[in-house]
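pinned: reference chain
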Amino acid sequence: MTKAPLAPYPALRLRRLRQADWIRRLVRETTLTPADFIWSGVIHDGGGRVPVPSMPGFERWSVAEAAKAAREAKALGIPAIAIFPNIDAEKKDPRGLVSIDPDGLVCRAVRAMKDAAPEVGVMCDVALDPFTEHGHDGVIEHGRIANDATVEVLVQQGLVQARAGCDILAPSDMMDGRVGALRAALEADGFHDTMIMSYAAKYASAFYGPYREAIGSGKLGTGSVDNPADKKTYQMDPANTDEALREVALDIAEGADMVMVKPGLPYLDIVRRVVETFALPTFAFQVSGEYAMIKAAAQNGWLDEERAILESLTAFKRAGCAGVITYFAPVAARMLGA
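pinned: its structure tokens
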């Protein structure tokens, strides 16, 4: 692309294009709309809504409330909702097998949401950490997360979600080969149109803490099973960037329709590299820690909350994201619609 040469000052005054709101809007390079959001929500097996202390303003939904959220998303122009379960502790086991129950919490929520607002897409997390008593994303064997044994359970989990009506399966476990195994199982079971958005570059991050509270995840490094202290043997090293491209390439080759980078703002360089390398719809997850930081700073009067929300979401689009998974989706949608 040939760029026009810059005239010297004062023939060129860059502030001319910033002098009023109308011209700033007219020349704006990045536009944010409610259609850019996937609303992230947590469901529980009780009634009503339950606040999450580490995420001010955020609440878990009952199945009935999840259906209401789907109708709200439709009204706000939000295309899809991603749901994550908070499972009662007594239902968990070392292998997370309640995840494959066709009448379990996730499947009931999917059916209720699709009945309430079939036009709104539903995305389901494919991972075992909400369902295991130890809080890891996979099956533990001899003190390690067993890749292939975990993939076997994930495939069963993905199939029950697809049968319930889930539109997008989002494997977040970071096991090798799970995208290919899921795609093959979906094809064999006739779910040719079920989409896969892989958590292709998911980092072993400090920013997931509030989410673990929201889903009631087990405490790593403790419990009755041999339990690794962290997830560094399967989630990515935050220091690596070339490795992210290899992870994305493998997931695309195995049948992912879309890919995701997680967390969000601290990894916008990864987003940009993925978009420029693969030109595939690429999403980022504005994770719970990012949400909590903005909310806490705003509550202390250190940030303008509304400006910080929209600025952070715009940054994802500016980096090249097709969309953003965010807990701020309904708030941001209302601001943009105002």
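why pinned: The chain has a mean pLDDT of 96. The chain is about 40% helix and 15% strand.
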